[in-house]
Amino acid sequence: MPIIVNVDVMMAKRKMSLNELSEKVDLTLSNLSILKTGKAKAIRFSTLEAICNALDCQPGDILEYKEEKRS
């Protein structure tokens, strides 16, 4: 999928654990882990807002688009 999720990068920059972020955004560890590993199919704007608020970042810091190469 051409959408890359960089939650782990922002967490590392902010020195924040998955448990701490989970508590701050009120998401289960399993749901946050699915998002972090790029296995999520969608994200609610309210969840994205909470993550951006907790990590003090912009949505573009978390989500990245990379065009897939066509053969």
From TrEMBL:
It comes from the Bacteria. InterPro entries: Cro/C1-type_HTH (IPR001387), Lambda_DNA-bd_dom_sf (IPR010982). Residues 13-62 form the HTH cro/C1-type domain. Pfam families: HTH_26. PANTHER family: DNA-BINDING PROTEIN, DNA-BINDING PROTEIN-RELATED. This is Helix-turn-helix transcriptional regulator. The lineage of its organism: Bacteria, Pseudomonadati, Bacteroidota, Flavobacteriia, Flavobacteriales.
